[in-house]
Write a structure and sequence with these properties.
Layout (H helix, E strand, L loop, with lengths): L2 H20 L3 E2 L8 H11 L6 H20 L6 E6 L7 H10 L4 E7 L2 H14 L8 E2 L2 H11 L3 E6 L9 H14 L5 E7 L4 H7 L6 H17 L8 E8 L4 E8 L3 E5 L2 E5 L4 E8 L3 H10 L4 E6 L5 E6 L1
Parallel strand pairs: 1-11, 2-3, 2-5, 3-4, 5-6
Antiparallel strand pairs: 6-13, 7-8, 8-11, 9-10, 12-13
Helix pairs in contact: 2-9, 3-4
Bound molecules: N,N,N-trimethyl-histidine (AVJ).
């Protein structure tokens, strides 16, 4: 990456970080989790027994792939399959493989802010599903969507998987989905993966696994600040602290200070009280009624709710 871009990006990272740490209560943005180490740790999280979300959505795709294709293209119409934040495509491959073997007419358009992630995905798909027509697009979701809705007469089907919607509060989710609604055309559809409210112990375990992978993922933010912003966080005097509120469905990850201390970030000093927290992430869980409410508020109609056999997770198809 050219040096100037790197400096600009670090400037945004620095500004966001200082702004969050000067807020009350302190926050850090989850969007900075995903550097190289963060990507690796997230891959490990998806393989943990306690992190049930990935398996649940995978099994929904395995058992419902035919119904999903029929929902997207009831009479064999061609379509764009647009994925927001495609990542490694582990679950999406189940659908892609099936759609290709059914000779569905579609172009797979993964969108990601990371060109690195897109390159890896395109490469692995070229090997596993060589017949697939794929057009990766790097950039902001809405810019790409806007371009697609205006340039193509094809139906657009948007995938937003893995409970990524959970990183928004209800209001933020409503804003995000309303913006999608404004950008798309009639007949377009959305498939959105949502983690359901369930036994709080089960949810909390998914964000506080026994191997400490999620703790390392969360605390990696402090490493990143140390390395990229000249911080001096001592990781020993902070602790991963997730907590779940069954009323709001919000599982929040935080990092807690274990003593009164001061931390230097570049030229700035940030003071922490013992037991003070920095909220790093929200992973919101929904009931099916709340999914219905969200869809209606954003101008969508819920067509299908596809649940896994344990009732942990739902892939909701909207039009
Ligand atoms: C990728 C945002 C869906 O919130 O469950 C996993 C990220 N954080 N473990 C989630 C995550 C801690 C994950 N999402």
């Amino acid at each position: 990456m050219p040096e100037t871009i790197e400096i600009i990006q670090n400037k945004t990272f620095l500004n966001d970080t200082l702004k969050g740490l000067k807020s009350k209560p302190k926050t850090l943005s989850s969007k900075y989790f995903y550097n190289k180490r963060g990507d690796e740790l997230f891959q490990q999280i998806m393989k943990l027994d306690e992190y049930y979300l990935t398996d649940a959505e995978y099994s929904i795709f395995e058992s419902q792939k035919d119904n999903i294709l029929k929902a997207f293209s009831p009479n064999g119409e061609d379509f764009n399959l647009v994925e927001f934040g495609a990542g490694d495509g582990y679950k999406t491959k189940v659908l892609l493989q099936h759609f290709v073997s059914e000779e569905a007419l579609f172009d797979y358009i993964p969108i990601d802010i990371s060109q690195h992630a897109l390159d890896g995905l395109a490469q692995s798909l070229a090997q596993t599903i060589p017949e697939l027509s794929i057009t990766p697009m790097q950039g902001d979701y809405f810019q790409v969507l806007d371009r697609l809705s205006h340039s193509s007469t094809r139906r657009n089907v948007i995938l937003f998987l893995g409970s990524n919607i959970g990183n928004f509060s209800f209001d933020q989710a409503q804003n995000f989905l309303s913006k999608i609604r404004e950008d798309i055309n009639t007949g377009d559809q959305l498939l959105i993966g949502v983690d359901l409210k369930k036994d709080p112990t089960k949810i909390l375990a998914a964000y506080n696994d026994s191997k400490g992978v999620t703790a390392a993922f969360n605390m990696n933010l402090l490493n990143r600040i140390n390395e990229e912003l000249g911080g001096n966080f001592n990781l020993e005097s902070f602790q991963h602290y997730p907590f779940y509120n069954p009323v709001t469905g919000e599982c929040k990850s935080a990092i807690m200070s274990l003593k009164d201390q001061e931390v230097l970030i570049g030229e700035e000093i940030i003071a922490f009280k013992k037991w003070e927290t920095m909220q790093t992430e929200i992973s919101k869980k929904y009931s099916t009624d709340e999914i219905q409410e969200l869809a209606e508020k954003c101008g969508f109609e819920v067509r299908y709710n596809l649940e896994d056999q344990n009732g942990y997770f739902v892939d909701s198809i909207w039009s």
